[in-house]
């Protein structure tokens, strides 16, 4: 299960708890590559409880968890001796929250002690470029091939990350069921993305009418299962996706759009904002995007609110 050798949990009850948490993580959809870090964090918490003489997990309450938060926020990094980043600290506490959520759901504790606690998610400083819905329509109108529409429908219509676009395979797209499978998203977590009829139609049109011609390129390999191929028949990479998008932006003739720092990932930011603007619940948008933390999705509510304020100011 990837337990680190330098973190040893000696209490049998805590060892069994770690095993239960392992099974719980599998049910949540995490894959093996992500277990090690999560178990590092869990075992450090369990070891800390042992050191405090707290050997019954059902007796742990908010004050003890806050004490652990103070500890993990101030302890030096084991890598370089510096302070832990806010993101790492938050990840530690998210494991604790998941642990007590598991105990609460299974009826082992009557109240989740984390329910009243707030561990601030680190603010994201990078600028998020968001296109409005009219600009998205202009991009679709500028397409000249089925492949170009399919690229927009994967990046915008399905809200995929750039890495997920690159890794997308034929078997991941279920046209009949109108779903797209992301086998290993961020954090190696699997998710299922629903596709609208329009998105499904765009992907089918590319797959059945244009992809076969691309397989004749010199880079195509007989076992190549990439859904999106570049002009030479190989798997399309990040740069090629962005080149296609840049061509579409040029064709729109929209000078304001040309001045924006737009990348394929901007389309993901845009669909997130548009879904929230249409009244879709934040939790549903979180699942659609594959965010681990609700706080990440809530960033888009701030963007959306700012846009609304700009409209009425």
UniProtKB/TrEMBL annotation:
It comes from the Bacteria. Residues 126-313 form the Tyr recombinase domain. One of its GO terms (molecular function) is DNA binding. GO terms for cellular component: cytoplasm. One of its GO terms (biological process) is cell division. Its main location: cytoplasm. InterPro entries: CB, DNA_brk_join_enz, Integrase-like_cat_sf, Integrase_catalytic, Integrase_recombinase_N, SAM-like_dom, Tyrosine_recombinase_XerCD. SUPFAM superfamilies: DNA breaking-rejoining enzymes. The keyword Disulfide bond does not apply. Keywords: Cell cycle, Cell division, Chromosome partition, Cytoplasm, DNA integration, DNA recombination, DNA-binding. Gene3D superfamilies: 1.10.150.130, Intergrase catalytic core. The keyword Cell division applies. Residues 12-104 form the Core-binding (CB) domain. It is found in: Cytoplasm. This is Integrase/recombinase XerD. It comes from Schleiferia thermophila.
């Amino acid at each position: 299960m990837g337990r680190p050798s330098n973190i040893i949990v000696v209490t049998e009850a805590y060892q069994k708890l770690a095993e239960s948490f392992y099974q719980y993580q599998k049910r949540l959809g995490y894959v093996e590559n992500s277990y090690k870090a999560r178990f590092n964090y869990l075992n450090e918490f369990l070891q800390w409880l042992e050191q405090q003489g707290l050997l019954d997990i059902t007796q742990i309450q908010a004050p003890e968890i806050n004490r652990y938060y103070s500890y993990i926020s101030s302890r030096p990094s084991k890598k370089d001796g510096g302070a832990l980043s806010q993101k790492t600290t938050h990840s530690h506490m998210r494991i604790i929250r998941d642990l007590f959520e598991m105990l609460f759901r299974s009826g082992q504790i009557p109240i989740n002690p984390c329910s009243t606690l707030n561990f601030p998610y680190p603010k994201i400083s990078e600028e998020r470029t968001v296109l409005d819905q009219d600009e998205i329509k202009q991009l679709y109108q500028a397409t000249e091939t089925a492949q170009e529409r399919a690229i927009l429908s994967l990046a915008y219509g399905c809200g995929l990350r750039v890495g997920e676009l690159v890794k997308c395979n034929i078997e991941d797209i279920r046209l009949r069921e109108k779903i797209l499978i992301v086998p290993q998203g961020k954090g190696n977590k699997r998710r299922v993305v629903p596709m609208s009829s329009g998105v499904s139609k765009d992907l089918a049109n590319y797959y059945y009418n244009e992809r076969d011609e691309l397989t004749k390129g010199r880079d195509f390999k007989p076992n190549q299962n990439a859904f999106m191929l570049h002009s030479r028949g190989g798997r399309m990479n990040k740069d090629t996706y962005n080149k296609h998008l840049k061509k579409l932006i040029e064709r729109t003739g929209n000078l304001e759009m040309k001045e924006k720092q737009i990348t394929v990932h901007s389309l993901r930011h845009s669909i997130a904002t548009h879904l929230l603007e249409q009244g879709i619940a934040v939790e549903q948008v979180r699942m659609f995007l594959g965010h681990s933390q609700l706080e990440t999705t809530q960033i888009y509510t701030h963007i959306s609110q700012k846009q609304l304020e700009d409209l009425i100011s």
